[in-house]
Design goal:
Chain lengths: 113, 113
């Protein structure tokens, strides 16, 4: 089934540890995104990639890094996790452009303790 | 940061009634608008997109756009308990390279039997 796959679905992580959230899409979409969702704050963009080989910062990029080595994969790395990074993380993709909608993965629930 | 505003709710409507969800946005240059539905613990699911002023109907859903007033709304006719969810308004926003969806914080809808 075509779509977006995120891994892991949930994780408890000790503060200070490094963690990579994985995201893979098989729709050949050009653009990919990482959002975090927190109660009362809604969905906030962390990083995005317009096409393979390029990335950009969103609203809340600090403490996170991304790479886009190919069209299908867009991993999100927390170099040294802090409790404020406890959140639900959603990866999304879209064909790209001004008029295209985004489709979401199932999310990763991350707890930093 | 361009703003997308929604009433958080909860909006409570009886089964069979019309639910009206509203959203305003600050970027007058925005061209593409989307409504997503999110059930508790699930990822956002696209239900409507609208690009031109006026109404767009799809089954029980009608999206309305007024660019002069910077206002977009979603009407749900014959509301069902299964419509109970959080509805997210999203506006496609130009980034340094490409576009990304900027989300409102969502309106919680409760349809009571």
């Amino acid at each position: 089934i075509a779509g977006i796959t995120q891994a892991p679905t949930s994780q408890i992580l000790a503060a200070g540890r490094r963690m990579t959230l994985r995201c893979t899409q098989d729709m050949r979409h050009n653009a990919m995104y990482w959002y975090r969702q927190d109660l009362g704050l809604g969905l906030r963009l962390i990083h995005y990639s317009n096409t393979a080989g390029t990335t950009g910062k969103g609203e809340v990029p600090d403490g996170y890094s991304v790479s886009r080595a190919n069209t299908d994969d867009f991993p999100l790395t927390l170099a040294s996790a802090v409790p404020s990074q406890t959140s639900v993380y959603f990866c999304a993709s879209s064909p790209g452009g001004a008029s295209t909608e985004a489709f979401f993965g199932q999310g990763t629930r991350l707890t930093v303790v | 940061q361009k703003e997308v505003e929604q009433n958080s709710g909860p909006l409570s409507v009886p089964e069979g009634a019309i639910a009206s969800l509203n959203c305003t946005y600050s970027d007058r240059g925005s061209q593409s608008f989307f409504w997503y539905r999110q059930y508790s613990g699930k990822s956002p699911e696209l239900i409507m997109s609208i690009y031109s002023n006026g109404d767009k109907e799809d089954g029980r859903f009608t999206a309305q756009l007024n660019k002069a007033s910077q206002y977009v709304s979603l009407l749900i006719r014959d509301s069902q308990p299964s419509d109970s969810a959080t509805y997210l308004c999203a506006v496609n926003t130009p980034m340094h390279s490409g576009y990304a969806l900027n989300f409102g914080k969502g309106t919680s809808l409760l349809v009571t039997p």
